[in-house]
Amino acid sequence: MANVLAFAEQRNGEIGGPARETTSVAARVASSLGGEAHALVIGGPGTGAKAADLGRYGAAVIAAAEHEALQDYNPDGYVKVVVDRVRDGAYDAVIFPATTLGKDLAPRVAALLDVPLAGDVTQLDVEGGALSVVRPIYAGKAFAHLTLNAKPALVSIRPNVFQAAENAAAGTVETYSAEVDPGSWGVRVLERKAAGEGALDVAEATIIVSGGRGMKDPSNWPLLEGLSDAIGEGVALGASRAVVDAGWRPHGEQVGQTGKTVSPKLYFAIGISGAIQHLAGMRTSKTIVAVNKDPDAPIFNVADYGIVGDLFDVVPRLTDEIKALKAKG
Known about the structure:
Layout: E1 4-7, E2 10-11, E3 14-15, H1 17-33, E4 37-43, H2 47-50, E5 59-66, H3 75-89, E6 93-97, H4 100-113, E7 117-121, E8 123-127, E9 130-137, E10 142-148, E11 153-157, E12 172-177, E13 207-211, H5 222-231, E14 235-239, H6 241-245, E15 266-270, H7 276-282, E16 287-292, E17 305-308, H8 311-327
Parallel strand pairs: 1-4, 1-6, 4-5, 5-12, 6-11, 7-11, 13-14, 13-15, 15-16, 16-17
Antiparallel strand pairs: 2-3, 8-9, 9-10
Helix pairs in contact: 3-4, 5-8
């Protein structure tokens, strides 16, 4: 059978959107190839119990590799577990999320298996028994169309581009103790510094409110926070590289070629001119709303809705209108 493996990323022991998306894509590919979709989740003891829900998204089998040393991501430990599973299962394809973790792990797996990797894919189909993918290149100015003939075919998918569709399968959880040797690892986690409490990662948010140099000063960021609060749940704050380089916002919020690639349902670009490096990280957003006082700003070339005006006048009014609409129910 032409089975497909989905790497189901867990974060702090929780299974999130990237895991559901990779599992859903694996199920669709496996169906086209006449096989089953399996999911692999790696983590500390008890991780498997939290991954059982992946059966709703098409996983016939959910393999949970558990070990105390795998509670936190470690490239040396994780890559061995994934490679061992791929080889044992003789999978035709492996689907990774193009998250920060996935972008680090997938190339390592590809190197050990000696097969190519199609990274940050935004479109995936099966043609003639082989995976056909589309991925942005040259900072999103062009798109490469690739056919993967290697076995296994390795792909990482851009978060929020592929909808996690429910497609119930057996979802049998197989928990096993991963064979790892922490003493041989060249990398060790000494400390974790998380974002502020309750802060949502821009790579996983469905709505992003991003600010650029047009915000003029970090003390003006409450304007964007107010807009974010008015919209409600599922919103993350983002920033352009210029803002992060100036020390106004943390690097974890940076959207762009040297930051994070995002594909939310709604993206607000506030005071962002739209340099190609920034567009490379957000142009696949479903709907883009831009606010800029320069009518010739490049951001308007990709925006679905553009407001030419002073953001210090526009954003408060936009916030008030959203609050009023929500108050009406």
